Structure formats: structure tokens, C-alpha cells
Amino acid sequence: MALTQAGTTSGDGWSSRTAFILAAVGAAVGLGNIWRFPTLAGENGGGAFILVYIGFVILLGLPLVLSEILLGRAGGEDAIGSVRNVAAHSKRSEAWKGIGALQITAGFLILSFYSVVAGWVINYVFASGGDFLGALFSGEPFAGAFAGESQEEITGRMGELFANPALLIGLHAVFMAATVWIVASGVGDGIEKAAKWLMPAFFVLLVIVTLYGAIVTDEFGDAVAFMFTPDFSALNPTALNEALGQALFSLSLAAGGLLTYGAYVSRDVNLAPTATMIAFADTGVAMLAGLMIFPIVFSVGLDPAAGPALIFQSLPIAFNQMPAGSLIGFVFFTLIFFAALTSSISLLEGPTAWVIDRFRFRRPVAAILVGGVAFAIGVVCALGYNVLSEVRPLGFWDIFADSDILDTLDGFTGKIMLPLGAFLVAVFVGWFADRRLVQQQTGLSGGMFMLWRFLVAFVCPIAVGLVLLFGLFPGLITPAAAG
Ligand code: PFF
């Protein structure tokens, strides 16, 4: 039983607490923060959605982050093995390991479409990088992005990309290959090293672009008002479900990432403050991303509710009209790329660690295998924008009736698998796992432990369960929303 010793059969461990924090923050901070969060906040009217989101992070996300990391560390294996070990130690049914299986499957599915979206980011890194070089060589380094192009031409770039399956798939392949390469290099030599370089670079770039928006535009105050003045009429069951799904997605919960990374944490790390730092850093970045993006969007009179095209179409239009927009555009897409890469490696690590533990494959073989299959699923998602654009995989189900292939995978994992996975973790840790083991792992005592346990055992299952239910059956609350 691996309950007394950290470290797993699938790899080495983190070299230090800082290394773990960087890797876990790297896993958490990703497309979810910079692409999905501002998109959802914009679509759902800003303030109220963000307030609910922050509430979910504190009351549900934070206790769950701690629960997952401690399960991983206590179990000391891949996600499935860890939950199985803790269940065995707690004299509970082996079936609880299904939590690990559900999570690994979710992470694997997320990886497959995440890499496709990251491919779009790479496209814009190249396009804006080329644009900036062009501006530089023509002696105008501070030109706006895509100078000389009309708004239609700039927004049309995305349509062109989507209409080009070979390019979409090629970029997806590049991103997946980079992810596989890092995971194949190991926990210390791959994942930890990548996080150590990419995360600090990411933060510097994020601060640069946010300051730029605050200084160059007059709309920083408007953005703050939009983000932090709640309009509760904009909230409905779907928005609540989306806020929860987003909180779970952004914190990398219920997708095997934290369970797996937790197993590489040494015994002497105090988990409660560590989990708190991870959750706060992730939420802080989401807020900063909003403060980075909305002033720029507002400054040129664009709509914050533009949907998924917000950063790929609206922002390039804005960069076109702004001083040094060419350079800033390049910096902006590069920082998203860094964030996406440190997240995708955590998505790949979950299933890879399982393949290593279960089949005794060597790490590179396991990483290539898992990455290869995820790549294939991603190819189908990419084709959903062109060749298969008519396909609605779950079209018979009202909540997915309009969703293309990628949206369906995104919605199915975010709205169903993640809430379900989180619900089960809360029930298991709150009610079934050995209480002494759990308390000892958290490092919490007295009132703080009671409070945490109350959140995990009562608040999380009830709130997550309700949101899951209402998300699946919107008609339960507002019959009108059912159609
Ligand atoms: N948290 C990542 C993001 O916000 O982009 C996505 C993610 C990574 C989800 C790792 C789940 C996971 F295990």
C-alpha cells in the first residue's frame, strides 16, 4: 500500500514545493482563464457572473482543490490507483476508483479539443509575429496590428483558418507534439522545467499587456465597472451551470490533473496553504485577463458578448487600431500559448501516468500513445468546422442541439463530466475516506478542519449536485428555458 510513501511508479516527483506550485498553477492557468473566462463573463453580462464565479471558487473550488491533491498524495499513484489505495486503506469498496477513471477520461477528452484551440492560438502567434516583423522591417515597429487590412479582412482570418482543415490539423499536431515531448521527458525534466520557464514568462507578458490596456485606453474604468457591477437579471440556471463548469475547468478539477500531480508532492509539504495559493493564483489570473481584454474591446466599441471569437476576432480588430498593436498582438498570443502548453501537459500527464502504472509502458511510449489517440479525436473536432460542419453529435439532446463537434465535447465534459467528478470527490473525501488520514493530509486542525470538512461533505455535494441537475434539465427551474 502506497499510503506512507510519496512518489509513484510512473515517475519522479517535484524537486520542491515551489516547483509543485508552479506546475499546478501552470495546469490551472490556461485557455480557460484567457479565452473561456472572458468569453463567458462577456456573454453573461459581466459582474453577476463573475461574482457567482468567485463564490464558487471559494466555497467549492478551494475545498475541492485540497481534496484532490490530498487524495493524490495519500494514494501515491496514478489517478485511478490513488483513489483505489485510499479506498482500500479506508476499508471501502474498490469501485471508488471509478472516480479516477471518470477524471482521466474527462482530462483525455478535454486534451483532444484543447489542443485544437491551442492550434488556433499558434496560428495567431505566427500571423501576428509575421505582422510585427513586417512592421519592424518597414521601419514602423509601433504600427497597429495588420495595418492596411479592413475589419472584414481581419475577422475573416478566422474563417479562413476554419475553412482549412489541413492547417487546423497541422497546428493541432504541432501543439500535441510539443505536449507529448514535454510529458515524455518526465516529471522533473519535462513538466517541472517547462513550468519553471513558461509560467514566469507568462506572468510578465500578462502584466505588460494589462498595463498597456490601462495606459493606452480610456476604458479601464468601464471594464472594472462591467466586471464588478453585478446585474443579477443576467443570471439563469444555464449561467450558473456555466460558472460552475468554468470554475472546475479553470482550477483543473475533476480532470485527473490535480490527482496525478498530487501524487508527486512530498510528505513535508503543507497542503492547505498550497491549495489556497493555487486557487487564488488561478482566479487572480482570470480577473487580470478580464482587465486585460475588456478595456481593449471597449476602447474600439466592440461587443464583450462576442462569444468564442472574442480573442481571435475582436481583439485583433482592436490591436489594429491601437498604437504598437502589432507588437502587443504578438505578445498577447504568445502568452496564451505559454499558458495553454503548461495546462495541456497536465491533461496528458493524467492518462499517461495511468498507462505507465497499469501496463508498465515506458513513459515516452505511454505519452505518445495517449497523445496520439487524443490527437485523432481532435482531428474530428477540427473537421467539425469544415468538412463535418453539419454534424451535431448530441443533436437529439436539447442542451447540445446546436453544438458542433468541438462544442459538444467541451460542453459534455464541462457541464456533465466535471461536475459529476467533483461531486464524487466531495462525497468520497467528505463521507467515505478515512477521516484520520484525510485530516493528517490536509495539515488542518480544529475549526479550520471542521470548516473545510463541512464545505466538502455538505456544501460541495449539494451545490454541485444541484447545479449539475439544473444544467441538465433547465426546465426544472424556468420552464421557459427548457425549449
Ligand atoms: N485549467 C485549464 C485551463 O483553465 O485552461 C484546463 C485544464 C487543465 C483542465 C488541466 C483540467 C486539467 F486537468
Automatic annotation (TrEMBL):
Residues that span the membrane, as ranges: 18-35, 47-66, 99-122, 166-185, 197-215, 243-265, 277-302, 322-345, 365-388, 416-433, 454-477
Pfam family, one: SNF
Record's keyword terms, sorted: Membrane, Transmembrane, Transmembrane helix, Transport
PANTHER family documented for this protein: TRANSPORTER (PTHR42948:SF1)
Gene source species: Aurantiacibacter sediminis
InterPro entries listed in its UniProt record: Na/ntran_symport (IPR000175), SNS_sf (IPR037272), YocR/YhdH-like (IPR047218)
Location(s) in or outside the cell: Membrane
Source lineage: Bacteria, Pseudomonadati, Pseudomonadota, Alphaproteobacteria, Sphingomonadales
Topology in membrane: Multi-pass membrane protein
Superkingdom of origin organism: Bacteria
Name of the protein in question: Sodium-dependent transporter
Coiled coil (residue ranges): none
UniProt entry tagged with the keyword Transport: yes
